[in-house]
Design brief:
23% of the residues lie in helices and 20% in strands. α3 (84-103) links the parallel β5 and β6 (114-118). It has helices spanning 9-12, 56-66, 84-103, 150-155, 181-197, 232-235, 297-310, 386-400, 411-420, 437-448, 467-476, 519-524; strands spanning 4-6, 22-27, 35-36, 38-41, 72-79, 114-118, 125-130, 138-141, 144-146, 159-164, 202-206, 221-227, 265-269, 273-275, 284-286, 361-364, 452-457, 481-485, 488-497, 504-509, 528-532, 548-553. α2 (56-66) packs across α3 and α8 (386-400) runs parallel beside α10 (437-448). Strands 16, 17, 18, 19, 20, 21 and 22 form a seven-stranded antiparallel beta sheet that branches.
Length: 559
């Protein structure tokens, strides 16, 4: 029997600590047999049974939409400390039952099924393979290979595509006044076209007749936009499971039966959402009940269930609508922001060498942010708006991590928020008054529901003493930090700290910059760069005669 290839060692063992249970093993017809791409935890058990007796019907209903075309269940993994072969039979029986519900009896006859068994601590895992059909004999797999670069391995075998194609639809529309028919018809047609153009719409490609042995395997294509009549082979080579298959000969007819070329039938499912969560090597598809709203409890519980199935952390919003893949936007390069309508620089610290602290450990902001600074958007805030700009950078981080979908607020909107909570008088709106760390914490609480920790120091000379605490913040929370002291405010993106010597450096993003968004100019001139509390010339970066407040926004614990 051929070797089992595992592309997802960390996913195979996720939630092993949860005790006995089943994980469904996912493969693809594009990949060699017995290749495990990912695993999905079984979260529905039969009533009055142990967790290794799955509710196959409920599981199949959810997995049918969750697993995208081109991937399928190829086996199951059971956790248990005894009876490896017995548990392997249980895994294979469960996988066969699930496959029958998902793909039908006929599609399961000639497909071997993987049965895996692991100890509760995941210290030992063994693989078995059943024969095709209803054979009960098992063959132990002695060769298990782990792929070093699983993402590259998966995506070199296929891709996703967004196509444009003409669609003719009969439209029936009833109106009281016949003279309004043409106008009503036009409005109805435009509404249909708008839905079809929605980047979140999914088109399931199906052949015009029943399944055949000549039917090609499902295809996964990505990253290009084509006319319907374009030859796919000229746009992107598509590899299939057969090494001898000439991928360069593929065209649109590949999607139809080879024995009977014809126009495929498209059925449309509106507004599903596709996600590419970390650690999962293939996209997943989720349907949400939008009528409940994204913040409603029912949708939160749906997401929590999905996090459990996929082995995702419960304190990250990885499956919110804002996280969904958007094929209408090309992947931006380098420092360009992914936010719609935004041209601000993003992640300007990437590529800057470490702080030069001998034996130091660098702790950095986790995730992306936008660089907000003086004079942006044609707004003159030079001399008074540095804390506002630092706050805008912090809020952009929460937007890009999808904790919120609100726009980054303007100076006036920030002031309005402080007036609404009673911190400022109405005359504050439209003024040029400074704000500090405390005001920033109020705004973050009001607009985002984000709590903040505030560190007070009596002098800039004491800031190095807080490096250990700052390093812990970046390692556990990962949010940008605002430093305010005297009349200046900075955004802190990381620290380079040697715990033994106490030597440290601060990665500062300076909002006082007034030039154009030229990344090279900003970095070379030190507007984003490492600053030591005292440089080689004995000059202090932080003032010794001023107190400082450090605002540490806390990452929300949410899904």
């Amino acid at each position: 029997m051929g070797a089992v290839k595992i592309l997802c060692p960390t996913i195979v063992f996720h939630n092993a600590e949860s005790g006995p249970g089943i994980h469904w093993l996912v493969g693809s017809p594009f990949l060699p047999p017995l290749t495990i791409v990912s695993s999905l935890r079984c979260i529905h058990a039969l009533p009055s049974s142990d967790s290794t007796s799955p509710d196959l019907r409920q599981e199949s209903e959810e997995l049918r939409t969750l697993i995208i075309k081109g991937f399928e269940i190829i086996g199951a993994l059971t956790f248990g400390n005894f009876g490896f072969e017995k548990n392997a039979h249980k895994s294979i029986d469960a996988a066969r039952g699930l496959r029958k519900l998902l793909y039908g009896e006929g599609q399961c006859e000639n497909q071997p099924v993987v049965g895996a068994v692991a100890g509760l601590d995941a210290s030992d895992i063994r693989f078995f393979v059943s024969g095709s059909g209803h054979e009960t004999s098992l063959e132990s797999v002695t060769s298990v290979a782990y792929e070093d670069h699983p993402e590259k391995y998966v995506w070199e075998k296929g891709c996703l595509i967004r196509c444009e194609l003409p669609v003719k639809l009969p439209v029936y529309y009833a109106v009281n006044n016949p003279r309004d028919i043409e106008k009503a018809f036009s409005r109805a047609t435009e509404a249909v076209i708008a839905k079809l153009r929605d980047p979140r719409a999914v088109y399931m490609l199906e052949t015009s007749s029943k399944a055949s042995v000549d039917q090609p395997p499902p295809a996964i294509i990505r990253g290009v936009q084509l006319d319907f009549n374009t030859d796919l082979s000229k746009a992107w080579p598509l590899a299939v499971g057969d090494d001898d298959y000439d991928s360069n000969s593929l065209s649109c007819s590949y999607f139809s039966l080879k024995s009977k070329a014809g126009i495929p039938i498209f059925s449309v499912e509106l507004l599903p959402y596709h996600f590419d969560p970390p650690g999962v090597l293939h996209p997943i598809t989720v349907f949400y009940e939008l009528s409940f709203g994204e913040t409603e409890l029912k949708q939160v519980e749906v997401r929590r269930s999905l996090h459990s199935r996929l082995g995702l952390p419960y304190d990250r919003p990885l499956l919110r609508i804002a996280n969904a893949l958007d094929f209408s936007r090309l992947k931006s390069s380098g420092s360009e922001s992914l936010l719609k309508g935004s041209t601000l620089l993003r992640d300007v610290h990437i590529g800057i060498p470490s702080g030069g602290v001998a034996g130091g450990i660098v702790s950095l902001v986790q995730g992306s942010y936008e660089y907000h600074h003086y004079l942006q958007d044609g707004f003159n805030d030079s001399g008074w708006g540095c804390a506002y700009r630092s706050l805008q950078t912090i809020i952009s981080w929460f937007r890009l991590q999808n904790y919120t979908s609100i726009d980054v607020p303007s100076h006036r909107e920030i002031q309005q928020s402080l007036v609404e909570i009673g911190d400022k008088d109405p005359s504050f709106i439209g003024s040029r008054e400074w704000i500090g760390a405390i005001e920033l914490s109020f705004v973050l609480e009001k607009l985002l529901g984000v709590t903040c920790k505030v560190i007070n120091v009596r002098s800039g000379a004491e800031l190095p003493e807080k490096c250990r605490e700052l390093a812990l913040h970046f390692e556990t929370q990962g949010t940008p930090v605002m430093i305010g002291g005297g009349v200046l405010a900075y955004t802190l993106l990381g620290v380079d700290y040697n715990e033994a010597s106490g030597d440290c450096a601060f990665l500062i993003l300076d909002p006082h910059y007034t030039g154009t968004d030229d990344l090279k100019k900003i970095v070379n001139a030190g507007w984003c760069g490492w600053k030591k509390a005292v440089d080689n010339k004995g000059k202090s970066f932080f003032l010794h005669d001023k107190f400082y407040n450090l605002l540490l926004p806390q990452r929300p614990n949410m899904v």
